[in-house]
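Re: beginner question about structure tokens

> Can someone show what the tokenized structure looks like for a real chain? I only ever see the sequence side.

Sure, here's an example I had lying around. Input first:
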Amino acid sequence: MATPPNRPTNAPEHRAASPTAPTPTLMTIGYEGAAVPGFLHALRQGGVELLVDVRAVASSRRPGFAKTRLSANVEEAGMGYLHLRALGTPADGRAAARSGRHAEMRRIFLAHLASDAAQQELATLGDIIRSGRRVCILCFEADPAHCHRSLVAQAMAERFPLVVEHLRPDVDVDVD
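And the corresponding structure tokens:
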């Protein structure tokens, strides 16, 4: 095969991604107002294989959503659990979000996302997603537009092609 013009003979050949390779999907979910059965049902419906907790503090007053119990609930449902604490919102950002100051929370979180620890955990998350596992990131806020998990998803989508899907737990139904 002849070398195309304007390409040195020692240059690597760049190939487009396989047209049959699916674009990875990153799901997100918030558990505000949800009970564990409806939450797990939404994860199952989404085909989630790994729930990635992106809360800085993985505790909750909501029964079943503190780290130890949540991990057990998810694993009993046949999924994995991983806590990436450095992808959580710092305390001042959480305070801003609780007060409805979403633009301030966003500014604080985006500054935090530039930290070395957050960048390392973004790389870890990216590696997991690119491996083909069906991943869902978790935080409290029901509305993804007001939650930092959307910013995490956006940061992932800036690194490689990605479909972001926001799951919503069944809040009124006690599903087994």
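Each token stands for a local structural state, so reading them left to right follows the chain. Strands lie at 25-30, 50-53, 80-83, 135-139, 163-166.
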